[in-house]
Amino acid sequence: MSELSQWIQSQISHYIFAGETERDVQRLLASQRNLRPSMERYTFMDGHEETMMCLKGTLPISYRGASYNIPVEIWLCIDHPSSAPICYVVPTSTMRVRPSERVDANGMVMLPTLSQWQSGTSNLTDLTQDMVRAFSIQPPVFSQSSSSGATPPPPSQPSQPSHSSYSSSSSSGGGYNAPLPAIPPAAYTTSNLPYPVFGTNNPGTGFPQSNARMQMPSLPNAAEQHRIAQGGYMQQQSWQQSQPQQLQQQQQQPLTQPPVQAKAREAQSNAEADEEQQVLLESIKSAVAERLREKLRNKLSDAEERIQLLQQENRELISGRDQVNRMLANMEEEQVKLEENCVRLDAAMDEIKRNMARLASAGDIPVDQAVTTSTPLYKQLLQMVAEESALEDALYHLANALQHHVIDLPVFVKHVRTLSLRQFMLRAKIKKARDVAHLRDI
């Protein structure tokens, strides 16, 4: 693990999602090497302060064929990435914020990426890329001309209703400047960075005056940067100082000039007007395109949600169709089984009716003929079993009569001796008959 990673992890340990925040910052620093992290105090609108990570540096943009560096600050909330970062454009003392739909007068960045921030899909790398694209279409700052008087200090940075004004570590009195490890990217400096020059009479629109041609200063080399650091932006001052001289020379020229010079001035004026109209047209086109893209994204989002709902309903309908088909198949099987049972029941009812009719026509059956046997041995055995059962009943009734004093004891003993002897003989014959018939013992 690198020293920078260890430092970031140690500083954002109080973050709710410290791991995801650390990975998001690492990816951003890998893509934007002009940004450096620091821990500073941020004051919210309700007055409470929190120590949050601030990514300071510049974002490189390309505007009308020239490259510029835009100074920015990206504040990460404690619950990052659940909440959107707070982004500002931080102009230097020689610059002013150019208000637009993307940046307000205080420098707060207002992009669809921030307003539509979603945890899990949005990240800092995509946010900075969107900022670069938006700033390349319409730069958020411009250099203030020296002829316009004293340069006002950079405005304070109040946030939107859910936040309060930005307070740096030096102004809050409780700043947190933890030591940073050595980082390969260059140090964050904005005092010598060139920015597009716009007319100062109307800073809100950012377009040049009609009598001055808009010039885009080129990026200074190392020697020019040293001269700029020592004496300010010399190219801009020289250009601004040359304007009164040119105007004075034009005023000193005679009113009557050759037609060729008048035509040249007229052509130059027309070219400047055409260029201004072209810039205005491009700005309008970019604004319209951005609005159309935003509406298209909203339409696509609504369409995707509707498609997802329709797909969910389709899956539910398909599942219901399969369930209904299974229920129909089970009902058909049950119907076949019920029809078969109905056929069997009808046949059994017909047979019962026939038997009942036959029994009704046969009349009463004698008791002795109700039970028949297949062999004479079985018939003899049946008679002996019936006689033995009758003797058992007679003995029972004799005991019952003696108990109720119907007969006396001598009579009871006499009949019991006779019946018991007969019962014994019958049981012996029954056992012998069962052995001959190969019946099991009972």
Automatic annotation (TrEMBL):
InterPro entries: ESCRT-I_UEV_domain (IPR052070), ESCRT_assembly_dom (IPR037202), SB_dom (IPR017916), UBQ-conjugating_enzyme/RWD (IPR016135), UEV_N (IPR008883). SUPFAM superfamilies: Endosomal sorting complex assembly domain, UBC-like. Belongs to the ubiquitin-conjugating enzyme family. UEV subfamily. Residues 159-171, 235-261 have a biased composition (Low complexity). The keyword Cell division does not apply. The lineage of its organism: Eukaryota, Filasterea, Capsaspora. Gene3D superfamilies: 6.10.140.820, 6.10.250.370, Ubiquitin Conjugating Enzyme (3.10.110.10). Its main location: other. Pfam families: UEV, Vps23_core. Keywords: Coiled coil, Endosome, Protein transport, Transport. GO terms for cellular component: ESCRT I complex. It is found in: Endosome. Residues 141-178, 231-277 are annotated as: Disordered. PANTHER family: TUMOR SUPPRESSOR PROTEIN 101 (PTHR23306:SF3), TUMOR SUSCEPTIBILITY GENE 101 PROTEIN-RELATED (PTHR23306). GO terms for molecular function: ubiquitin binding. The keyword Metal-binding does not apply. This is Uncharacterized protein. Residues 286-355 form a coiled coil. It comes from Capsaspora owczarzaki (strain ATCC 30864). GO terms for biological process: endosome to lysosome transport; protein transport. Residues 2-145 form the UEV domain. Residues 375-442 form the SB domain.
